[in-house]
Q: What sequence folds into this?
């Protein structure tokens, strides 16, 4: 089963996105299967592409995010 990662954000007036993620890396550190990494913008993404076959859907990243910035859902 594959899972999708969604990063929450706020739409700004100039059609830009303000991501809630503050790059604290808690999600990356807590993942039991190490399926998350930072991208060039220092936002979390799956190591094996989106959707991820490696992610187990445990949602530990989602549960421990202090900013409610990440969500994991079945694809």
A:
């Amino acid at each position: 089963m594959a899972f999708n990662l969604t990063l929450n954000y706020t739409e700004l007036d100039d059609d830009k996105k303000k991501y809630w993620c503050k790059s604290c890396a808690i999600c990356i550190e807590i993942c039991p299967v190490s399926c998350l990494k930072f991208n060039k913008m220092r936002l979390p993404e799956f190591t094996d592409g989106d959707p991820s076959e490696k992610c187990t859907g445990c949602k530990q990243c989602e549960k421990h995010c202090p900013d409610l910035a990440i969500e994991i859902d079945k694809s």
Summary: The first strand starts at residue 3 and ends at 7. The beta strands are 3-7, 9-11, 17-19, 36-38, 44-46, 70-74. The mean pLDDT is 96.
